[in-house]
Amino acid sequence: MAEQARTAPVRLRRVIAAAGIGNFVEWFDFSLYGFLAPVLAAQFFPNSDPAASLLATFAVFGLAFFVRPLGALYFGRMGDRVGRRTTLSVIVLLMSGSTAVIGLLPTYAAIGVGAPLLLLLMRLLQGFSAGGEFTGASVLIVEYAPPHRRGLYMSALSISTFAASALGVMITAALTSGVGVEAMQAWGWRALFLLSLPLGLVGLYLRLKVEETPEFKRLEHAADVEQAPLAEALRTQRKPIATLFVLIMINSVAFYVLGTYWPTFLSQHAGMARTEALWSSAAAYGVLIATAPLHGYLADRFGRKPMMVYATVGFAVVAIPGFLLSAQGGFWTAFLGQALFALMAGAMSPVNSLITAELFPPHVRYSSGAIGQNLAYLVFGGTAPYVCTFLIAATGSGLSPAIYIAAIAVVSALGAIFMLRETKPAEAPSGDRVVEGAS
User: Closest Cα partner for 315 from 398, 244, 419, 412?
Assistant: First the structure.
C-alpha cells in the first residue's frame, strides 16, 4: 500500500471529486422519482383512485431494485476484471441517460397502459446502473485514500449522496412554489428529469480524467486480476457478504424512508402542504451534510464497529419518537423528527461505505461488496416506501412505519455486535504508517 500512502493531495482531491460527482448524479437521478411520486402517479397511472395510483408508483420504484442485484453482478464483475475507473464511467452514463428519457415519456392520458410500462423500463435501467455505483465509488476512495484517514475522505462520498437528495428536494420544492402545482403536473416534472443529462456528462468527464486505482494496478502488475470474481466471491466471501447484508438492512430502509417516503408522509398523513414537506426534508439533509465529516473522523478515530453499533442502536431508539414528532404537522416538529433520523443516518453512511470495501480482499472487492449491498437494497430499500404506505393503509396508524424501522434496526444492531469484525486498518507503533489488516 506504499503507493496509496504517497498519493498526492491534488490527485486525491481529483479522485474524491470524480467519485463524488458521479455518485451525486446517480442519487440525484434516482431520488427524483421518489420526490415526484405524487406527480408521477397522476401522469402515468389512472387517476380514478389516487391512493392506488400512489401505491402503483411506489411499486414501480420498488421493482427497480429487483434488477439492482443484476447490476451488482454485472458491474461488480466488470470492476474486478476491467477496473474501477472504466466501470464507474459506464455506470454514470447509463444512469443519466435513462433518467433523462423519463422526462421525455408520454403520459397515461396520451398512450394508456404503455406509459407506465415505459416508465418501468427506464426505472429498471436506473436500478441496473445503481447496482454498481455506490460500491464502486466506495472502492475507488478506499483504494486511493490513506488508510488512517479513509473515514474522513469517505465522508465526502456521503456528502455527495446527501447533497444530491437535498438538491433534488430543494429544486422540486422551489419549482413547485415558483410555477405552481398545475405547471408541475404539466411540464415541470419533465424539466427536472432532463437536468440529469448535463450532470451525467460532467460526471463522465471527471471520471475519465482519473487514473485507475493503485490497488488495481498492483493486481494487474502482479497478474493477479481475478478472471472469475463472482464465482470466487461466492465461494470464499459468503460470511462477510451475509454480514454486510445484515448491516445494510437498516441503512437501505432509513435512506429511502427519509429521502423518498417522508415528504409523502408529511403531506398525506401530517396535514402539511407539499412544498412545506419538501423544505422540511431538505433541512434534514442539511443535518446530514453538516455532520458527515465528524462521523467520518470518528470512524477513523474509534473504528468501524463502535460507530455501527452506535448508529444501529440509535435508529432503534429514535424511529418512533421521530415519527411522533413529524406527525404533529408543523414545520419545526416535522424537521426535528427528521433530524433525529438524520443524525443516525449520518453516523451510519460513511461507516457503511468503508465496510462495503474493507470487508473484502482487493481481487473480489467490487463484486463482493456490490452483492451484499444490493441484496439488502432489493429486500428492504426498494420496498420501504411501499411497505410504509401499505402499513398505514392496513393499520390506520401513522406509527406503523416507525415500528417496522425500529425492528429492522434491532436486527442490524445485533449484526453489528455479533457478526462484524473491526475493519479499520491497524496503526503501526510509529503512528505515522498503517498496516492493512482488514483488507
Answer: 412
Q: Which three cell numbers stand for residue 192?
A: 427536472
Q: Which three cell numbers stand for residue 117?
A: 410500462
Nearest CA to 405 among 242, 258, 241? 258
Rounded Cα gap, residues 379 and 62, in angstroms: 9
Phi and psi (nearest 5°) for 391?
-60, -40
Mean pLDDT of 409-423: 96
Q: Which of 290, 340, 295 is nearest to 316 (CA)?
A: 340
For range 145-171, the mean pLDDT: 88
Q: Which one, of 51, 133, 131, lies nearest residue 92 by Cα? A: 133
> What is the Cβ-side half-sphere exposure of residue 416, based on CA atoms within 13 angstroms?
28
Which pLDDT score, from 0 to 100, does residue 177 have?
80
Cell of 229: 470474481
Residues in the chain, overall count: 439
**For residues 71 and 131, is the Cβ–Cβ distance under 8 A?**
yes
Nearest to 235 by CA among 332, 368, 419: 368
Exposed, middle or buried: residue 291 (CB in 10 Å: 0-12, 13-18, 19+)?
Answer: buried
pTM for the model stands at 0.85
In this structure, the dihedral spanned by the alpha carbons of residues 178, 332, 39 and 176, taken in order and rounded to 10 degrees, is: 0
Question: What number of other Cβ atoms are within 10 A of residue 435's Cβ?
Answer: 11
Number of C-beta neighbours around residue 370 at 10 A: 34
Q: Which alpha helices (H) appear in 303-433, and where do they start and end?
A: 304-326, 331-358, 365-376, 384-395, 400-418
